[in-house]
Amino acid sequence: MTPASHLLQQEIPLTWYLLLSAALFSLGVIGFLIKRNLITVFMSIELMLNAVNLSFVTFAHQWHMVKGQIFVFFVMMVAAAEAAVGLAIIIAVFRARTTLAVDRIDLMKL
Amino acid sequence: MAINESILTWILLVPLAGAVLVALLPDRGKLPAWLALLTSLVSFGLTLHLPAHFVLGQHGFQYEINRPWIENPAIFYHVGVDGLSLWLVVLVGLLAPVGVLASWNAIKDRRKVFYALFLVQQTAMFGVFISLDLMVYYGFWELSLVPMAILIAMYGRKDGPKAAIKFFLFTFIPSAPLLVAILWLYARTGTFDFVELRLLIDSGSMPTGALWWVALAFLFAFAVKVPVFPLHGWLADTFTEAPVAMAMVVAGKLGLYSMLRFHVGLFPVQSRAVAPILVALAVIGILYGACLALVQRDFWRLLAFAAISHLSLITLGIYGLTFTGWDGAIYQILNHGVVDAALFLLLGILETRYATSQIAAYGGLASRVPQTATLFVITSLAMIGLPMLNGFVGEFLILSSTFTGVSHGWAIAATLGVILGAAYMLWLVQRLFYGPESELAMRPAADLRLGELAVLWPLAILMLVMGLAPAIWIPSIENRIGIPALKGSTALPASSLSVSFQGEGQQ
Amino acid sequence: MNSVPDIYRILPEVILTLTGVLVMLVDASLPPGLPRRSLGWVAATGTAVAYLASIWQLSLPVGTGFYATVETSPFTVFFHALICGIVLVALLLSLDSLPEDSHHQGEYYALVVFGAVGMCLLTAAIELLVVFIALEISSIATYVLAGYRKETARGPEAAIKYFLLGSFATAFLLYGVALIFGATGTTQIYDIANLAPSAQNHSLVLAALALMLVGILFKVSAVPFHVWTPDVYEGAPSPVVALMSTAPKAAAFALLLRVVYEMFPTLHSVWAPLLSIVAVLSMTVGNLAALRQQNVKRMLAYSSIAHAGYLLAAFAGMGNAGIAAASFYVAAYAAMNVGIFAVVTVVSGYDENLPMIQDFRGLIYRSPLLGGLLIFFLASLVGIPFTGGFFGKFYSFSAAVGGGAVWLAIIGLLNSGLAAAYYLRLAFAAAQRPSDETGLTRSYEPRAGVAVIAALLFAVAATLILGIVPGDVLHAAQTGAHTLQPPPPTATEVIGIATTQPRVP
Amino acid sequence: MLHEPSLSLPGFAPALPVCDGTMHLILFVLFAGLCLAGAINLLLQSHPINSALSLIVVMTSLAVLYLLLGAEFLAAAQVIVYAGAIMVLFTFVVMLLNAGREERTLGSRVARAVGFPAVVTILGVLATVILRAQGLGSASLHDGITSTEELSAVLFTKLLLPFEVTSVLILIAILGAVALARHGDGERMDGK
Amino acid sequence: MNEHLNLWLIPLLPFAGFVINGLLGRRLPKSLVTAIALLAPLVSFGVVLNAVKASGAGLVLPYSETCPIGWINAGALHVDFSFVFDQLSLVMLLVVTGVGFLIHIYSVGYMSHEEGYWRFFSYMNLFMFFMTVLVLAGNALLMFVGWEGVGLASYLLIGFYYKKNSAADAGKKAFIVNRIGDFGFLIGMFLLLANFGTLSFSEIGAKLAASPAWTGGVLTVIALCLLLGATGKSAQLPLYVWLPDAMEGPTPVSALIHAATMVTAGVYMIARTHAIFDRSPFALSVVAVVGAATALFAATIGLVQNDIKRVLAYSTISQLGYMFLGCGVTAYSAAIFHLMTHAFFKALLFLAAGSVIHGMGGEQDLRKMGGLRKKMPVTFWTMTAAVFAIAGFPPFAGFFSKDAILYAAFLQGTTGKLLWFVGVVTALLTAFYMFRLWYLTFLGESRSHDVHPHESPWSMLGPLSILALLSVGGGWIGIERFGAFLAPAVGRQTGEGGSAQLEILLILLAVAVAALGWFMAHRLYHQRPEGAAQLAAAMPTGYKLLLNKYFVDEIYSYTFVKPLLAFSRFILGWVVDTAVLGGLAWLLGGIALLGGAILQRWQSGNLRSYAAWLAFGAAALLLFVLVPWTSVLASFPVFHMNVAGH
Questions:
Q1: What DSSP string describes E387-433?
Q2: Count of alpha carbons within 13 Å of E214, Cβ hemisphere only?
Q3: b/e for C67-93, b at 16 or more Cβ within 10 A?
Q4: B485 pLDDT above the threshold of 70
Q5: CA C315, CA C274: separation in Å to the nearest integer?
Q6: Is C1 a domain residue?
Q7: Domain housing B408
Q8: Are B116 and B67 in contact (CB under 8 A)?
């Protein structure tokens, strides 16, 4: 089925959602690579998790399985927990180094 | 007869128990040394049980124990001795008290560590010689590196750790292919047992192409350990740095024994094919070591290159693949063990008293330390193969069998190298003991002490006895497994062990 | 039907959780200012009980619980016991090395114990959702522990690096889970195993495998996912490194075994060469990079990367042999690595400056026991016979050779020769006579309490037992390996997450 | 069992009153675009606050997409948990640390030389895989919506264990956050 | 009926003496040391005499004794401790133990003031032990024991004054040069083993006898190898260089080892293995040529040496050359005959020289002696007997034996006549330098004033006298009877074209030549003492060449020793060992370290780089898993590997 026929049938192929998810995921990865602030880097990770969530929801829709959605629910919880810990770590870093610049956190190398 | 069944286990356990005991008891004064001496004497006594009850002419391994150790993979605690290993075990036993006494005054601190590791080393060496399960064997083989390396690092003369690392890497890395080869054999046959593997390989059921690689891996590990030219890079530094008691056991024995047992003995076809190369390398090694020994300035280094020369001679005996050559090679391993031990002891004593190993610093010591000089001369003569002393018998057997059974040319070249041996040893004797008294000789230094005499004279007498009465040793040496047991054989059978052989040198 | 109460299936986890809660409660109820060292004993006791409980689980019939989300089998018991053991040793180690009056000891012990819950659960989980949560629990605990010396410059840096990269890798793992869910419609491992081979979108399965491997290989610090390891080990407190270099890794390897052998057994031809390549890369990179390292903790970090490589070599093995070898290696690696970090901890202390190799010079003269133990554990890491490290390597490469990957075994063993170079550098520094001018200015007076001695004893005993009489442990690993296979598909569980069928080993 | 084919139950009205096909397309394009735009903006903005706001846009848009896919509960949770709680936390920390514009640091050449090709590859491979995938089906607004009730029925039976275990996760997160973020008595050690 | 001769006592008694004196001598009183040291060879001598008596009483020779326990019994090699007593060993034993005993007695006086008295005697006994083993040995290997052993004793005794660098050097040189000869001996033994399968002389002889057509070929090679050994031990060209230096040892040592016994071992060995030499005309001619050349060569050097012992040393080499010449012309009995007489007079010469040195307080330079006749009359007269003997004047012992050799040579065709001529020239030179020595030492005026020569004690003069008697009468037995006696052991040479007239002619010629030599010496060193110097000045090159012994030591040093050392040090030591092998190890290590350094750079510390690597890994994994490599690689025929595919 071509996208055009979907258009006519007024249905969105799940492929689109998945592609969006992949794109968002990749943007998240790029974000990790280019952002210079620890907090925004962390945000990029959140973006990646969201992208994955979209995939889960899409697949849940495809398989008509609740489990995919529940998975997303758990991911949200985990994300929340991670956020708490991650931000605490960032605060600790800031206290110790008074900077949030990713590139300055390179005391340990080689 | 019960003791016959467990004697090998006792031989393994006694030094180990001694090591544990030494490690547990406090490091007070000479207590560890006394304990180690006691332990080593007991274990020496135990090893003497072996030749005493060895049954000549009995086929197969004796004092054999074969018990499962690990179920899967099937590793057995399989130990036993035959003529090949019998005297080597005794030699290790003999060198144990010698080593302890060699360290008596040389080791001044951390005696506990030293003697504990020394005894562990003993265990490992015993283990190597009596193991008949390849895994157990490999275990002991590797284990033997550790105390050696640590002690070189701890008691190194100038740059111990560096030499220790060199030693360790040189001998450890080649055992990697060895282990892979053993594993391959196991994957193929499901057994690590030497006897079974020999029969399996012999039956020709193994893929020959892969066996080549396996045999080569075995050989490589052993050749480095011996060391065979050009793999000797570690030896000189090790000799220079290692404490005397360790250096005297480091070279030769393990590698040469393993060559005979596990390369020639396990892969007759493959070893026969590489034998010409080994013979060539051995002869090169003989000459190379002798030439380099001539120009060394440090007596440890001189000894190292001399050792290369002598060990290469034994290698020649092994890869000549003649029965007589093997007799000679095994006998020469024993000789080399005894002679080298005495030489190390003497040079160690000199170094302890005069605090240098530079030959040039010495000279004219003979009148100051006449006993040392006398024993040194005797030992040197044994080393250069003076008839009536032990070195000669082995040398003659090896060279004559090479001449008659292998190649005139190589034998002549090897003989030339042996002749050169006189040059460097006598020159060393001269530079150390003769000539005008050097500044060093003026220093007050005691001649040999009672303890040292008590070791060296028996060794010297042993050299004489071994030179005069090899008949004590050789009949049992010929009672060996893994290589054809027919007298007068020229070479290994092509594929089977039960082929009969042409007489050697009978034309 | 399964007659075992579900709670028995997660008994160790429950005990550990209760222990954690107890630690928190006691911590809260103790008046401030009172020494909190006793909390460590509480945690250790709880862990010991959990250990016993996991051993006790052997008596349970093999089977699943909680609607087929967790299972109990010799495999899980093996790893439970291993993890509990490691945690116990790490706790004992911390008891004597944690500064008495600071550092939120309560939180520390609770975190360790809760982290253990995650690790244990990770090995027991047969439902990817549980896997994910368990992984997060263990990860978050280690993230925090890695940065526990938050007042130093390096502690938070270690934590943030570990945290961000860990989350990054977890996102990949999660994406993989999403894809496998997309391909099969389930996240239950047995169901996946049954459905994946016939999945309509096979490439989805493959992509899922790759992405999941990213997350798992990150946890086991295999090349090229190893980059975090040296930095994090350097910054984290030594007792924590002792824990985090072993326990989460053990759990991650259990997960890897489960994923490749149980979830994707049919993709053996894909992941086996992949893991072989990763193995070679890991051991080579780890060993080479460690060669020039002066910082002991970084060196050991690289060494742990190399060991991940040796371990991965076992995955080239066929079926049970590979699983058993890998399991055994995990145990051996854990024993010796905990041991060596225990020694490093005692030598350099919790508040260490960076422990450099020269700081170890003459250790055997300062403290024969510590020096000897250091050398012993290093010997085990080198793979000297009659130590656990030897048999670990032996089984691992044996499995590889059995699987036909002779080249892998050769490279691996040559690598272990290479590795000897840097291990020996440390060992011989310890064995070297200390010269006066090097002056042990940075030396730290080792506090050798009962706990730390017990910890060292445990590690030594384990390493020796694994080296001399590995039979029992190996037997356990083999029994575990037998149970790590997906059950045959039955009509009722083709689609769905729940199965209450007892599994036949 | 969870695999009932349709989760739409009689009596539940379609989620959106305007169940026009075109509407679906418009909504998808709009919010997918918003998502992407937000994500890109997140990358482009140099101030953390702006990035955080962009992320909130992404999350909210995703919530709408969840709705389009019939995940009603998730859409709500997305807004509440993610956009509401988590991002507030982010913003809070940004404020707390007074994080300004990103510093113009040297950056990482490796990230550019290795990272970007890698990302392109990842995206390419994933896209290929997705595009090649068969039988993924499609979504329309006629599809039912998963009820929260049903969701919770599964959550509290079949997935009870993960749910319970999550409590440990939360606990550990709290513990960790407390241990790390608290200016505490721990600093006494540093005096020496 | 063979009685038991207890031959084993002959070597073992001296050995016991060696052990006792060697171990305990330092603590024993001097008299006891002396007693032990003398008793051992004396009793040995007695045992020999007993054996001689037994053989006279009808003992069947060869008689052999074999130790019931074999020595080396390994694989195909069987060697026993077997002693053989036949005519040849009888003669040798008499010489060795007899002369040896005399020299022992002499040494008691000569060495009485030496510090290492006990050491000296223990070494001497050791020498006796090895020498008798050498003589008695029934197989080549056992002979080799004695062979090497006497070398050892020689080494020890030469280096007796070990504090002198020159002495220590000389000892080492002797041993090493001998070793080169031993190399030949060893190879010879290998060849014997390879071709005969045994080392026993009797078995070899039997096998040769069984195949009479077997000549040349490998036998030549064996013979030449043995000859190499013999040239080493008997100081023949080209291995003679050690013997002159060996004079660093105490004089009795020079007398016993480096004149009477050990150096003749080569001759003895050739005689012992004559069965092989007999089958190889080429080898025999080589022996003869070597002998003749050495005789002449050494004699020329002897002409100009100023050290009394060095003159004697070169004379020894020269005389040994005669013996080789004798062997080379298959006149074994003549060679052995000369060996015996030479033992008498050369021992006497050395002992007398020792007496002179003793009397002169250690002075050895001929130029500083002179006029000793009156001060040391006994020494003078005994020495005179010896000089006449060596010069070949009848009826002294040397006359008979030397002429027997020359006569035998003359009968060997053209080559033989050439060799004979060389022998005669050598005889001239011998007479000249011996009388030169005689004149310079005893006649004329004393040329040094600060020493006060005195006659030696009777412990020294006694042996001198006995040896003088032997030097005079030792040859009276005559070559005919001697040859007949030895014939069972060494065969009987057959000269063609010999006649009594020819023999007498040759004898007269030889005596005339000797007289000429005496006359020249008389002219140059007695009548016109400045004549020698003038002669030397007239031929500076030749004189210098001779004085410096043809620069042979230097040539050896520059052609063999130094190149070998340089090769070892630079090529092997630096290039091969350090540069190539060491470099290889270093290179491998360097590569590893470099790899480490590069991989460390991976660890840049930058979080974003790390993430990039993670992303890279993810991408790589995805590619690996999803690209069907087998089909991709199949398009490249190179890669037919079993890469993961699906």
A1: HHHHHT-TTSHHHHHHHHHHHHHHTSHHHHHHHHHHHHHHHHHHHHH
A2: 16
A3: bbbbbbbbbbbbbbbbbbbbbbbbbbb
A4: no
A5: 10
A6: no
A7: 2-500
A8: no
Could you give the percent of chain E with pLDDT greater than 70? 96
Query: What does E358-380 look like in DSSP terms, one character per residue?
Result: HHTTS--BGGG---HHHHSHHHH
**Nearest of C325, C280, C322, C323 to residue C305 by alpha carbon:** C280
Report the CATH architecture of D22-101: Up-down Bundle (1.20)
Point out the residues of chain C with pLDDT beneath 70: 1-2, 100-103, 351-353, 434-448, 486-505
DSSP conformation class of D190: G
> Is B506 inside a domain boundary?
no
The answer to whether B313 and B332 have CB atoms below 8 angstroms apart is yes
What number of H helices and E strands is found in chain C?
21, 2
Determine D/B contact with 3+ CB pairs under 8 A as the test. Answer: no
Number of residues assigned to chain A? 110
> For residues C293 and C425, what is the distance between their CA atoms, to the nearest angstrom?
10
Instruction: Confirm whether B507 is domain-assigned.
Output: no
Chains C and E touch (3+ CB pairs under 8 A): yes
Cα–Cα distances in angstroms (integers) from residue B130 to residues B89, E120, E479, in the given order: 8, 48, 66
Residue in chain A nearest E601 by alpha carbon: A110
Q: Cα torsion for E109, E111, E113, E119, to the nearest 10°?
A: -140
Is the Cβ of A30 closer than 8 Å to some Cβ of chain E? no
> Is the Cβ pair E568, B230 closer than 8 Å?
no
SS3 letters for B191-255?
CCEHHHHHHHHHCCCCCHHHHHHHHHHHHHHHHHHCCCCCCCCCHHHHHHHCCHHHHHHHCCHHH
Chain C residues with CB-CB distance to A63 below 8 A: 181-182, 185
How far apart are alpha carbons C173 and C155 in whole angstroms? 26
Which amino acid is located at B243 in the chain?
P
The full set of domain ranges for chain D reads 22-101, 150-192
Q: What is the DSSP string of E4-48?
A: P--TTHHHHHHHHHHHHHHHHTTTS-HHHHHHHHHHHHHHHHHHH
CB contact under 8 A, D58 and A47: yes
* Any domain includes C505: no
The tally of domains found in chain A comes to 1
Residue A87 lies in domain = 12-97
Distance CA C247, CA C84 (A): 8
Q: Which domain holds residue C351?
A: 6-500
Contact C417/E at CB under 8 A: no
SS in 3 state form for E501-536? HHHHHHHHHHHHHHHHHHHHHHHHHHHCCCHHHHHH
**C 386-425 residues with CB < 8 A to A:** none
> Residue C22 is inside which H or E element, if any?
helix C11-29
- The pLDDT value given to residue D32: 92
Q: How far, in Å, CA of B84 to CA of B421, rounded? A: 27
pTM of the model: 0.87
Structure tokens at E281: 């005309």
DSSP letter assigned to residue C314 = G
Whether residue C344 is contained in a domain is answered as yes
Determine the Cα–Cα distance for residues E587 and E584; give it in Å rounded to an integer. 5
CATH number at residue A46: 1.10.287.3510
**The CA-based dihedral angle spanning residues B421, B423, B429, B431, taken in that order and rounded to the nearest 10 degrees:** -140
- Give the C-alpha separation, E30 to E121, whole Å: 11
C344 contact E CB<8A: no
Chains with at least 3 CB pairs less than 8 angstroms from chain D: A, C, E
Nearest to C172 among E609, E618, E625 (CB): E618
- Beta pairing partners, D139: A12
Any chain D CB within 8 A of the CB of C103? yes
Closest CA to E334 of E502, E479, E503, E135: E479
**Model pLDDT for residues E167-219, shown as the tens digit of each residue:** 888 888 888 888 888 888 989 988 888 888 888 888 888 888 888 888 878 88
